[in-house]
Amino acid sequence: MFQLDATHELYAHMNINYVKAPALPTFDNYGKLLDALRRGDFFTTTGEILLPDVNIAEGAGGRIAVRARIQHTFPLNMAEIVWGDGRETHRKIVSLAETRPFGDFSFSGEAEGGDWKWARFAVWDVAANGAFVNPTWRAK
Questions:
Q1: Which residue, 4, 9, 108, 116, shows the most beta carbons closer than 10 Å to its own?
Q2: What is the pLDDT of residue 117?
Q3: 118-125 and 76-84: which strand pairing?
Q4: What is the DSSP letter of 32?
């Protein structure tokens, strides 16, 4: 049951999935959006930070390599690479404090992943708005 009244904070709960698609499909072809969701071609955000392109892959020596395009409204606070090995979850924080408002740039970062099984990427701004992608599974 979903119910709102004057005491509810709505904005903080309005994260949206931005689906990556070449065009908005017609109503009778909405399955194309479901296919994109199945492939993981989407990111979640409240809208102040956009991640139109993110690639998480295994780098040299088993490291986690992240490449992303970041578009943002407010100055950014940090990026984080989060990963797990099936027993523990780890994270590496990368400061983005040097950014200014209304930016659009390419990010490259790596983390010492050890025996990582999955990894995800997130970005947070100075107002605590965020954007993130779902986990990518390590290819084996």
A1: 116
A2: 96
A3: antiparallel
A4: H
Among all chains, which residue has been given the structure tokens 């399955």? 31
Q: 13 pLDDT exceeds 70?
A: no
In single-letter form, the type of residue at position 84 comes to G
129: tokens are 């708005």
The pTM assigned to this predicted structure is: 0.83
Residues in the chain: 140
Residue for token pair 């969701």: 37
Q: Which residue has the tokens 């930070």?
A: 49
> Do residues 40 and 133 lie in contact, with contact meaning Cβ atoms separated by under 8 Å?
yes
Query: Is residue 46 pLDDT above 90, yes or no?
Result: no
Closest CA to 25 of 36, 33, 35, 17: 33
Query: Which residues are bridge partners to 42 per DSSP?
Result: 19
pLDDT value, residue 112: 94
